[in-house]
Structures are given as C-alpha cells and as structure tokens.
Design brief:
Helix content is 49%, strand content 10%. It is α+β, with helices and mostly antiparallel strands and 578 residues long. The strands form four sheets. A four-stranded antiparallel sheet has the order 5-4-11-10, sandwiched between helices. Helix 4 crosses helix 22. It is elongated and about 100 Å long.
Length: 578
C-alpha cells in the first residue's frame, strides 16, 4: 500500500474513532504518535493529517468523516431508530442466509463476503452504519423543516418557477425538417381539429388537453406539465420560448427586470452590435439580431387552420406538372416531379406550423363563432389572438430526438412575474389580497392541502388546487413543490455542515475543535464547489440559448432559400394535376 492510499484508508480511524486507543499498539517517534508502521516506515497522525489536507479527495473525505461525527454528536439515538436498525439487520441476515444457500456457501463465509463488499468486518460495524443513516435522516429532515421558509424564498427568487399547461399534437419523424416537414393526413386533421375546438370555446383548454393531447402524462392532468423552472430539462423551443415571451412581449408582466431574473444572457439582452458577442453566440448574427430573433412571433391565420383539414387528403402525385396557358406562375415548373413536398397539407404545415420559434393563432375573419377565447394582444398582432380563455396560446414546433416530434400549444397558467390585485376577486385572496408579488407567489406554491376531497377550491388560486381533484392528487402536487424547494441547491449539504460546525461569522461553534489546516481546506472546498456550480449553471444556460438562437436563424435561412410557397396549393385547388 502506497502512502497516499494508506492516508485515504486512515481517515475513519483519525476522525471517527472507529478503533479505541486500547485496540492499537502505539509508539512515539520524536514525541509524535505513530499511527501505523509499514516495513521500516512510521506514519504519525500529524504527518497523515497534514498530507491528507493538501489533496482534494482527502479534504472531501475529511469533510464527510467530520460531518458524520458532528451528526452523531448532535442527533440523539431514539428507540425508533434502534427498532429500525434492528429490522434492517434482521433483513440483511436473512438475505445472507438465503444467498449462502443459493451459492452453496456457509453462512459465515457468505456473511464475510457481503460485509467485505461494504468495506466492513462485522455486523456491529454494519449496525453503526445503519444507525448513522438513521441519525442523518432525522437531522436532515429536521433541518429542511426548520429552514422551509428561507429555502422557499430562495427557490422562488432564483429558479423563477412557471406553471405551464400544453397540448401536444405529434407528427411523424419526417416532420423534423426545418423547411420541408411532412405530416400525415390524420396528423393534419388532428392538428386542425384541436385548434378548432380551442377556438370554439365550448370546452376548456384542460378538457381539450385531457381528450386530445398526445402527451398522455400531462393529458391526465388537464395539460399540466407541472412546474417548469430554470433547471427543468424541457426542449428549448418550449422552455426558452416561454421565457422570451414573458420577458419581452407579455404586457401582463409586472417585473421590470424579469429578463435578468430569467438568466437570459447579456448577449441576447444587449442590443448593441458587438463582434465579440456575435462570436460567442456562434457567429450567426449580431447581438441586436439575437433579440429580434427570439422575440419574433409568427402569425397563423385561422383560415390556414381550416385549410389544413380541407386539403388533408390531397395527395396525388405525378411525374410532370402540366403547363396551363395563362397560368404563367407555373411555366417554370413544367417537368417538375410532384411529390409529398407539394401536398397542400405539407405546404401549409411548413409555411405556418413548422416553426421552432413562437407563433400565435389569429382570427383573420374566418372564425365567426363566439369570441370567448379570442382576445386582443397588440404586442402580438393587430387581430384577435386565440387564448385559453385568458392568456394567449403559444405555438411552437419542437422535438426531443427520436422520442417525439410535434406541435406544442402552450398556456402559461402562472408566471413568476404576474401580479394584479384587480384580478384576484375570485381567488383565495377575495377578502385580503397579497401585499406584493412575493407574497402572491409564496401563496401560489403553498403546500397546504384542502381538508377534504370535496372541499370547494373554486377560490383557491394555487398550484396544489388549480384543478379540483382528490386529496391524494393534492398531496402529490404539494410533494412536488417540497421536492423542488429542498433540491434546488445542489450544494445544500454544505449548509448542513455549516449549521452543525460553524457560527455565523465562520468560526467554530463552542465545544468543537477541528485542526486549523483541515478546517481551512474544508472551507476552501465548499467555496470552490459553490463557485463551480455557479459557473456550470451559467455555461449550461448560455449553451442552451446559443443553441436555440442558432436553430431559429438556421430555420429562417433554410425557409427563405428552399421552402415551397403557398401558390403550389393551387395545383390541387384548380385541379391542374392530371
């Protein structure tokens, strides 16, 4: 065993006291305690501690070992813990006996093998491990509970949670092209019908989602995809598209620095034309063009929605386009092979729906029913925009590798930046509106569960109760919030260590002594880990925005150069295909 490996293996002995002094034959060399002698070389405690504190893996091992000691000292062992440990030991022993029988070994041999796999020598050591697990769980659960208010405030401020609903209409894999996507007759009809149902307003967005969305998981929840925050791994068209809309286009937004809070990179926010910014975004455009690109909204006339269904079954093919006198628009196409790209449904799909940026559906006069779900949003269009009854339905083409391709119809149920006291007459705040945005958001993500499944939640404007359900569902939503709050900080474990060991000024708490060099190394480790996390999150965020911007720019370039225009639909309308 080399010196470094020996050092690693001695941490438990040095810091956790797994062996008592009477168990180790000790000697001194020049007044220093010798921990172990290998061959002719003596290793002292001071030497091992000093050497170990210089190595990052060693510092991390010290940190873990000292944390274990602090927890053991802090958390008293209870009768419940003892019972739980006894149960786990009994279960382990039964498993060993069963494995011994299967492997044709004696119980003793099988026990030795399985303990060795865990790095242990006896059941008593395993009992200590199990007991430490119990103590850690008790301490950590208590810490989260006592810090719930602080953690929730930080989560809401730093991670900007959104409550989003959507309807997914899947298209086949051939629809992944940026300018020449192809959809089936059934897909064209379904996409058209879903939008028509939303436009008519006789069903809620949630009801249509429940019956028609191809995302079966969210369909069962009336289209709710749950809470989307800075860390949620949704496709860029969905997540960043919503961020861009809310930061730059949503007049309901009451927070002036929402773009900064959403961590939209400065290269997108800065409208100056700077070559350096352009280069870091892949050299695809100037900084001003970036913002213009992510805030451009495509308009889908409702007539095109109807046309998608009307021409869904037009799929004749021919080797040549027959030139028709006086139809000079097609003179240059004589001899062109008519293939799937010329199908009207595909031409409509590519011109209006196959867009990875944001789109909205507008009433161009072709919808003549109730205007219940059509509202004015001047920043999006000078014509009425299709909504979920209140907020615009945002449309985006997106996919996730081979798992799906499709059209998302997205609805922002709650933004972290919306707050209007005048809108709260029918909410839980009917008698007392929240004093500010922070109080409103704190309430919206409250984990309080209605007393009964039959409780009236019509005025309970919160994530837990956004759709009337049963207590199990309410409990699941509350647990989702708790898990996000407790897990948003990847370095939260360091807070627990600091809670046990340090005062607010960073000095050790009374009754605790840690070698100065080791403590300094641990503090440096914690600082470096936190800095690394921040850098990693910034890099990941910028990479996502860069990828999104590049996709939108590439899409625009390909569409401009290669996309078939709508005039080719006339080949079918006028029956020019013979």
């Amino acid at each position: 065993m080399n010196k470094r490996l020996l050092t690693l293996s001695m941490v438990g002995l040095l810091t956790m006291g797994l062996a008592s002094c009477s168990d180790v034959k000790q000697k001194d060399v020049d007044g220093k305690q010798v921990i172990v002698t290998i061959g002719e070389t003596d290793y002292t405690a001071d030497e091992l501690l000093s050497d170990y504190a210089q190595d990052s893996a060693g510092v991390n091992a010290f940190y873990n070992a000292i944390y274990d000691v602090l927890v053991r000292d802090h958390e008293q062992i209870t009768d419940d813990m003892k019972q739980n440990v006894d149960t786990k030991i009994d279960s382990f022993v039964k498993s060993v006996r069963s494995n011994a029988n299967t492997n044709g070994k004696t119980y003793k041999a099988q026990l030795s093998d399985e303990l060795e796999e865990k790095g242990l020598e006896s059941l008593e050591e395993l009992r200590e491990v199990y007991m430490l697990e119990q103590q850690k769980t008790k301490f950590e659960d208590s810490w989260y509970e006592s810090n719930e208010t602080v953690l929730k405030k930080e989560y809401l401020e730093e991670k900007t949670p959104y409550h989003i609903r959507h309807i997914l209409v899947k298209t086949n894999s051939a629809g992944s092209s940026l300018y020449d996507g192809k959809i089936s007759e059934d897909e064209a009809i379904k996409l058209s019908n879903v939008i028509q149902r939303l436009a008519e307003g006789t069903e809620t967005f949630g009801q249509v989602a429940q019956q028609a969305s191809d995302d079966t998981g969210s369909a069962a929840k009336y289209g709710s995809v749950g809470i989307m925050d800075q860390d949620t791994g949704f496709v860029n068209e969905f997540k960043l598209g919503i961020f861009a809309y809310d930061a730059f286009l949503n007049t309901k937004n009451t927070v002036t620095d929402s773009a900064t809070k959403l961590n939209i990179p400065s290269k997108v926010l800065d409208e100056t034309n700077d070559a350096d910014k352009n280069a870091t975004l892949g050299g695809v455009m100037s900084a001003y063009d970036v913002k213009e690109t992510v805030t451009s909204v495509n308009q889908i006339p409702y007539q095109k929605v109807l046309d998608l269904e009307t021409y869904a079954d037009k799929d004749d093919t021919i080797d040549n386009v027959i030139y028709v006198p006086n139809e000079t628009a097609y003179a240059g196409n004589v001899g062109t092979t008519i293939n799937e790209s010329y199908y009207p449904r595909n031409i409509l799909f590519n011109n209006y729906f196959n867009d990875h940026g944001l789109s909205v559906i507008i009433n161009d006069g072709s919808f003549t029913g109730s205007d219940k779900n059509w509202k004015s949003f001047p920043q999006l269009s000078d014509k009425p925009v299709l909504t979920d009854g209140q907020n615009p339905i945002l449309v985006a083409r997106a996919g996730s590798g081979d798992s799906y391709q499709g059209i998302h119809l997205m609805s922002i149920e709650q933004s972290p930046f919306w707050y209007d006291e005048a809108d709260l007459a029918n909410t839980i705040f009917a008698t007392k509106a929240p004093k500010d945005q922070a109080e409103f958001l704190d309430n919206y993500y409250s984990t309080e569960i209605p007393a009964t499944s039959s409780a009236d939640v019509s005025k309970d404007h919160r994530y837990v109760t956004f759709v009337k359900s049963n207590r199990d569902t309410y409990s699941d939503r509350a647990e989702e919030i708790e898990n996000l709050i407790n897990g948003f900080d990847p370095d939260v474990s360091y807070r627990l260590f600091e809670e046990l060991a340090l005062k607010e000024d960073g000095s050790l708490k009374d009754g605790i002594t840690i070698d100065e060099k080791i403590l300094a190394s641990i503090k440096e480790l914690i600082a470096s880990k936190r800095a690394a996390t921040e850098i990693s999150e910034e890099e990941t965020n910028e990479e996502a925005w860069t990828s999104y911007v590049q996709l939108l720019k590439l899409q625009d370039a390909q569409k401009d150069a290669k996309q078939l225009g709508e005039q080719y639909i006339n080949l079918y309308v006028k029956d020019y295909i013979k």
